[in-house]
Every structure is written in C-alpha cells, then in structure tokens.
Write a structure and sequence with these properties.
244 residues, Dihydrodipicolinate Reductase, domain 2, globular
C-alpha cells in the first residue's frame, strides 16, 4: 500500500493494474449514494475508482462495501483546491455531494477540465456553465439522480415522441420496505437535503409559463396496487427540464 498526501491528508492506494483501457473515475462524496456508486463502478471491468470525502469513517465504509479494491482520499470537498488535486488524474468525475457543496464542485471540475456526472441537487442555476464546458469539449451531466434526474430525462424523451403533451406529472417517493408511522418514509440520501426539499419554493410549468408555488401545496391521495394509498404534493425538482 502506498500513500500520497493531498493538503496534509493521506491518500491510501490499493494495489491494482493500470492498463491502456483503464478508466480512472473519482467519486466526490462517500455517503449513502456515493458509496454505492463507487462499489458499482469498481465492480465494472476496466474501472479504477477513487472516492474522496472529508470523513475517514465514510471512506472506510466505502472500502468495505466494494467487492473490488478502490482508492480513498481524505479531502475537504468544500475547498476548490483540494477538489482539483483529488481529480487531477481522473478521466471522469462523479459528484455525490450535499447540495451546499454542489455548485463549487461543478465549477471546479469544469475549470480543471474533466468530464462530470453529478447526482447532487443544487439550488443555484447552472445552465450558464454550459458554454464553459463546451469550450473545453467536456460532457457534463448535472442533476442526474433518480428524481430529479432519470425521471426528467425519461419524461422529456417520452414527451418529444408525442405530437402533443398537455400534462406531465412526475411522482417519486422514498418508500421503505416496511412502513411505520408517522412518516412512512425513508431518507435514502442526504437527510438535510430531504428537509430542504420540503420547504424550498416549487417551480412548475403551467400553460407554458414557469410558476412558483409553495412546497407541499396541492396534496392528493393516490392508490398504488400492492403498495396502498400514498399522499402526493408539490416539491421542487424540474431543474433543467423546465428550460429544455
């Protein structure tokens, strides 16, 4: 095992072969979602995976979760300089950070010149960074979680296949296997961001115009076979789908 220093913190490197076809991936954030992403990538042929996080315990958990060896590096991911050092040898960077760290990481990765896939939700608008990424010939995919993310892409794809789309609703929920009162909910990602999602103003599109509404507005009961009755309400999450 070799060790490298990044801003006074150690980088632990596991043994592995580096071949011509190896893709070096750095995952920013080793939490609930980042650790799964890292483990899944590490299990894929030709992937050399590094997880960067400020929490040493999270990094140890990532290493235990992975079926194949990964590298870990302690880094303050609120610091652009440390992010730049952590992703220096990356072919691809994956962002799995709390929303408050997302925008700084996005700008830093683009400035360094790395391809980026980001599942983090960030409150700041980021479409203005598109030209900067294009000039560097970078592929940058943001807000690509489950919802917002894959749900938006699939709905957008489906809507383009139709001659006309009058109404589009996206329903998503953190449903635990076993429901317990009072919430009957499972926070599968950053709990702080979950709470923020339920208080942040909601952007919706009505009659072709963007309209802002209060979070949790327009409650409705929906029945799902095999699941039961669930309550739906508005939360923010259209992101770039509202513009594109």
């Amino acid at each position: 095992m070799t060790t490298k220093k990044i801003s006074g913190k150690s980088k632990k490197k596991t043994s592995g072969r580096r071949g011509a076809s190896t893709t070096n991936v750095v995952v920013l954030g080793g939490g609930l979602i980042g650790s799964v992403i890292a483990a899944d990538l590490a299990a894929s042929r030709g992937m050399r995976v590094t997880v960067a996080d400020a929490n040493a315990d999270s990094l140890k958990s990532c290493a235990r979760r992975a079926t194949r060896s990964i590298e870990t590096v302690e880094a303050d991911l609120a610091d652009a300089g440390e992010i730049a050092k952590a992703i220096g040898n990356a072919d691809l960077v994956v962002g799995a950070l709390p929303s408050g760290l997302g925008m700084n990481a996005l700008e830093t990765v683009i400035d360094v010149g790395r391809h980026y896939v980001d599942i983090s939700f960030m409150s700041e608008e980021n479409l203005h960074l598109a030209d900067r990424a294009k000039k560097k010939r970078l592929s940058v995919v943001v807000d690509i979680g489950v919802a917002p993310g894959m749900s938006n892409m699939l709905c957008g794809y489906g809507a383009r296949k139709l001659d006309r789309c009058d109404r589009l609703e996206i329903l998503v929920g953190g449903l635990p296997r076993h429901r317990h009162w009072p919430w009957e909910y499972k926070a599968s990602w950053s709990p702080g961001d979950v709470l923020e999602e339920y208080v942040r103003p909601v952007r919706v599109v009505e009659k072709g115009e963007i309209v802002w509404k209060e979070a949790l507005a327009e409650p409705e009961l929906v029945d799902f076979e095999g699941v039961g009755t669930l309550e739906t309400f508005l939360t923010d999450g259209l992101r770039s789908l509202a513009d594109t």
